[in-house]
What we know:
Number of helices: 16
Number of strands: 0
Strand content: under 5%
Order of helices and strands: HHHHHHHHHHHHHHHH
CATH topology: Growth Hormone, Chain: A
Radius of gyration: 20 Å
Oligomer: single chain
Shape: globular
CATH class: Mainly Alpha
Low-confidence stretches: none
CATH architecture: Up-down Bundle
Number of domains: 1
Amino acid sequence: MAAPLLVRNRNYRLLFIAGTLTNFGDGLIVLALPWLATLMTREPIAIAAVAAAARLPWLLFALPAGVIIDRTDRRKLIARADMLRAGIVLSIMMLALSQPVPEMIWALVGLAFLLGSAEVLRDNAAQTILPGIVAPEDLEAANGQMWSAEQLTGQFIGPPLAGLLIGAGIALPFGLDAAALVLAAGLVWLITLPPQLRTSSRFWPALLEGVRWMRRDVPLLRLAVVLGLVNFLYMMATTITILFAQEVLGLSAVGQGVLMSVAAMGAVVGSLGAQTVIARVGAQASLFVSLAIWGVTYAAIGLSSSTMIVGAAMFSLMAGSMLWNIITVSWRQRRIPAELLGRVNSIYRFFGWGSMPLGAIAGGIVVQLVENEVGREAALRAPFLLAAAGSGALLVYAVFKLRLR
Length: 405
């Protein structure tokens, strides 16, 4: 019987632990950052701007990031990006130590943008480096373990701990995140990799080479567009979750952290169970299952005032998300040539993640417009109901047009 992947593969073990640390830190600020924003203002569009700023770099920088990743040492790039993120988070901590006033929200927006910019390089490089660390037959297991650890630390442990830390001081989660990022950078620096096949082309020819490859691969292009719409709907709904939890469900920071932990347990279950589901029903059918789950869960959240029902819906939402992620990430890691992986993966994520800041802003606008017509509570429910309808439409499209081959 073969030893577990984490035991027999030193490089993967270092990457796994480093990723776990960074995701733990991300889990702290995923609650602390919007909570800090709500201490500065209650305006939905301003709060949405913080979330949008963190995701906007995926729209602006994903394409050039792919060229950079294929031209540089990915290990050093990940470590340096984590150190940069640590410095930015320390700046947010200093902002949190100040007396919150509404004008400070725009400084927070700017820092969120810088943090997201470093994340574009870090996350793309980390996903690109994995096929050089583990064998092709281990990709599902490695991705499943990475996603499970991400959700366990980033959503199950991080947010409730952040809720407790916020009670002692809003700056504490940011300080702990910075320490985790520095330690993760050191672990990544210890990874040893085989020689990387790097592109020697100039910037624009290298980028166009990746674009041409992506255009020729119709299934991958369609999958990227569908993911972009999925993430637009996700951000439109979940950007307002912090206000929905406070004003509709009546949750404190600790309660919000617990709710996020329930969602994280769904992600862990989805990550660990994905291989079984795929083996039984196939990758194609599993994608349809994910889309169906999203539609039902968004509707349940939008129509409910029960914390139990919302928690169960978020559990299911994240389980479906992990099923989708493990199928699609492993599929494209095998499909894209190694020398093009950074560029094509970044183009894919440009479509898939570039829509997220647009979705975040859309969520704030929807709430603002609906509130003027029918009131605050109905406005906070509207993004979830729109996301449910959109997920249903995407399911119909996927059944007829989305094929993995």
